[in-house]
Amino acid sequence: MTFADGDFGPGGSGQGSGPRVALVAGPAASDRLTHAVAAIGGRLTRYGWHDPIAADAHDVLALDLDGADHDIVTDLFARIVPPATPVVVAFDADWIDLAAGLMGPDVQLLCAPTRLDCLAALVIAAGQSDQPARVRSDDAARVAVLESEITRIAGLLQRLARDDAPKDHVASSAMGFAARPAETHVTADDIRAVIRARRLRERFFADGLLEDPAWDMLLDLFAAALEGRSVSVSSLCIAAAVAPTTALRWIGRMVDAGLFVRHADPQDRRRVFIALSPRADDAMHGYVAAVRSAGLSIA
To answer: What is the DSSP string of the chain?
Structure first.
């Protein structure tokens, strides 16, 4: 069933002049995305799971997987492949691995999002589609903070991935990807010990004070590579030790930067595995060798 524009439920009207948003959701879905569309002055058209969707007639495509099952989600993902339309996907933690199949530069994955998370994602998506999004003043400051954090992540990873990084930048040697040393004498147990030590810090310092998701994920994937073990997206989100949506954002950026690679689980095509790219693997071995040669401990 397709709902008419303006079917928001409580809290908003779909008759704005902002971006056109196609929302695909089931009858049990929450109103987190509809409220966000209203907050940016968007024009909403809501679709049911099995409705034909004219994605090219909208500026933003939003999916809410609340209340879906695996068959519905698999069919939905197979049918909806927007060529260049920004996509926002809201889902609960059980759907992380399946939703990761949609990961891409124009896709924002929101795990158990708040209304503010949805609002920020739609503002960013509207910007990608060059459509104006006017945020209510009471939410604007918080959305600006979230946008700033996403921009910071993107800028950091672009600097790390550039071959022409400044010589005094940490990326110049680590991300220049010099040849791997002949022998680094590191084991998975060595790296797992470092990860355990990093988690111990959280017992003594406030939550969020020492977050470093990119490095935590690099360590976890490095240990997994040494063990010959595959790592699912959901497992890597846990290793990141941050909120799942933040972890997914980092994973997407790391893939875009060429540090992580994705591949489907051959036993279950609905699940995605993440691994270090060859050059990131070389960089981790190079880091360990440099630390060891300097008489230091891996941190």
So the answer is: -EEPTT---TT--S--SS-EEEEEE-TT--SHHHHHHHHTT-EEEEE-TTS---GGG-SEEEEE-TT--HHHHHHHHHH---SS--EEEEE-GGGHHHHGGG-STTEEEEES--HHHHHHHHHHHHHHTT------HHHHHHHHHHHHHHHHHHHHHHHHH-TT--TTSTHHHHTTTPPPPS-----HHHHHHHHHHHHHGGGTS-TTTT--HHHHHHHHHHHHHHHT--EEHHHHHHHHTS-HHHHHHHHHHHHHTTSEEEEEETTEEEEEEEEE-HHHHHHHHHHHHHHHHTT----
